[in-house]
Design a protein that fits this description.
Blueprint (H helix, E strand, L loop, with lengths): L1 H10 L6 H8 L5 H6 L2 H12 L1 H15 L6 H12 L7 H16 L3 H21 L5 H27 L7 H20 L1
Helix pairs in contact: 1-2, 1-7, 4-7, 5-6, 6-9, 6-10, 7-9, 8-9, 9-10
Length: 191
């Protein structure tokens, strides 16, 4: 699964065959067919592996925001960014690999992720409308998609180049990176 996640992130889902993944992982040609049957089932298994902690953290943060009649843009952005960063301090390489896989699916506008993206906006839309009542719905949706794409890209790529394994991921620098990212996204949502 690690080899599949990495290859899919690097090349895209459609560009990687099960045979290529088996070879890369050092398994027989039939290994993935035996365990998953199809590439679709393998992608589904990778999504199930990558998302539970992210979704749990997002649900917890959204539940807190729902209690607030006028949530701040900063808190809404935190509910976007912080779930993406879950586990990075404990397992930076594994977290980055999962996030890059998700970013690739998002970048390719993959049907595997399409419903998750629309569900995500549906969860955040009422909060954004309460926080930014003067912004029309279409503009709000566009800005949110910009923010979500940038958050994923920043965490999957910029974070590694700035704070990754070669530099050692330290909590203070990581927290500053997240604070800068969230401040930037909050400003963008406000326009």
């Amino acid at each position: 699964m690690d080899a599949a996640e990495r290859l899919f992130a690097e090349r895209g889902i459609e560009a990687v065959s099960l045979r290529t993944i088996n070879t890369e992982a050092g398994y027989s040609v039939a290994a993935l067919h035996y365990h998953f049957g199809t590439r679709d089932r393998l992608v589904g298994a990778l999504l199930e592996r990558a998302q539970p902690r992210m979704f749990a953290e997002r649900a917890r943060m959204l539940a807190e925001l729902e209690k607030d009649s006028r949530p701040t843009v900063e808190n809404i952005v935190a509910a976007l960014v912080m779930p993406l960063a879950v586990g990075m301090l404990e397992d930076f390489p594994g977290s980055i690999a999962k996030l890059r896989f998700l970013v690739r699916l998002s970048f390719d506008r993959s049907p595997y992720l399409a419903h998750i993206i629309s569900e995500s906006f549906a969860l955040f839309r009422p909060l954004l409308q309460r926080a930014l009542p003067g912004v029309d719905g279409r503009t709000l949706m566009r800005r949110w998609h910009f923010a979500a794409d940038l958050a994923q890209q920043a965490l999957a790529n910029a974070l590694e180049s700035e704070l990754g394994p070669a530099h050692g991921l330290k909590r203070p620098q990581f927290e500053q990176f997240l604070a800068d990212l969230m401040a930037f996204l909050s400003g963008g949502l406000r326009g």
